[in-house]
Amino acid sequence: xxxxxxxxxxxxxxxxxxxxxxxxxxxxxxxxxxxxxxxxxxxxxxxxxxxxxxxxxxxxxxxxxxxxxxxxxxxxxxxxxxxxxxxxxxxxxxxxxxxxxxxxxxxxxxxxxxxxxxxxxxxxxxxxxxxxxxxxxxxxxxxxxxxxxxxxxxxxxxxxxxxxxxxxxxxxxxxxxxxxxxxxxxxxxxxxxxxxxxxxxxxxxxxxxxxxxxxxxxxxxxxxxxxxxxxxxxxxxxxxxxxxxxxxxxxxxxxxxxxxxxxxxxxxxxxxxxxxxxxxxxxxxxxxxxxxxxxxxxxxxxxxxxxxxxxxxxxxxxx
Amino acid sequence: xxxxxxxxxxxxxxxxxxxxxxxxxxxxxxxxxxxxxxxxxxxxxxxxxxxxxxxxxxxxxxxxxxxxxxxxxxxxxxxxxxxxxxxxxxxxxxxxxxxxxxxxxxxxxxxxxxxxx
Lengths: 319, 117
What we know:
The complex is a heterodimer of chains A (about 325) and B (about 120). In chain A, about 15% of the residues lie in helices and about 35% in strands. By secondary structure, chain A is an alpha+beta fold. Chain B contains three helices and one strand, in the order αααβ. Chains A and B meet through β1, α2, α3, β2 and α4 of A and α1, α2, α3 and β1 of B. β1 (about 10-15) of chain A pairs parallel with β1 of chain B.
């Protein structure tokens, strides 16, 4: 498989946005996808899958499968079609730009990976769900960093609350049960509590060692449907939530004004199921954990709920 | 090569007793919540709403926190698929494909395939 893959430039992207927005990039995708495995099925049908195409947007092959054998067959088919193209057809290019969520990457701010996983328990099913994990990102812009710091980061024992709006955002958008699939974010009214405080434990060689402590509780009641394999979808009165203790350690470089380390854990019971989060037979309560840690600098994938992040704050004018 | 998730379970369960904060121990109880009905059965059309929701756990102690960090950090082999060198956006993939004169292979999913799917 890896040998077959090396012939191609691999790329990954979120399909719902590409099916919806009006940018040259999304139009490039929609035209290619229309010739693929789900083409012609109307705009409401997902175009999830794997597509091979030229940079100019000429469709080569597509598939939506987890089978390695079928995947290899698709790659070979795409390569055969590529080989049949003229040099001119292969070299053709087409505009595929436009605004993207990654445009708001927090340069000079804090970009975190969020690792989600169930806490250990015995009654997990005997399949992939036994060790399911998911990965998200959490972003804080440069101008938001002060809200994550104590009043005087250079002074030992300085302490204070993390800015409420940041703690709330962390809870609403990132303490969501996405271990097995995606659930909707929590609306602001679902936040029962979201508190995080920070204090300076030690100051050494221009670096402040910080400790974070807090708790969060999210609760939602409503009426929604849950997808269940092999069964009809049933809309019903439901509830979901997450109640977590939070604790973290971080290192703040006082001169460079940046985090050199950031490890924050949320752990506690989650409950309920949503349409696509795979909890149809596992509504809990059961333990779930989230670990936030620094993202590598080259990682630019946007948070899953990037659209719910606030608009950038105006940068103060220098006098 | 890593062991299968199921093969790792007994070890994880041994860890569980010491891994969870006191407020979470109930959720690792082997006699905890029963699994849902088997495939092929109709689900209850209206799941019972729990009257008593779980309490918010108390503070995490340092030792518990360290164990949770280990538990939640993915092992290196879980992240090998990221070594493929994916362009993280269609736009970037098209740009690279044009520059390198190669075809593009796009993995498009609900939820970013390199992130939360």
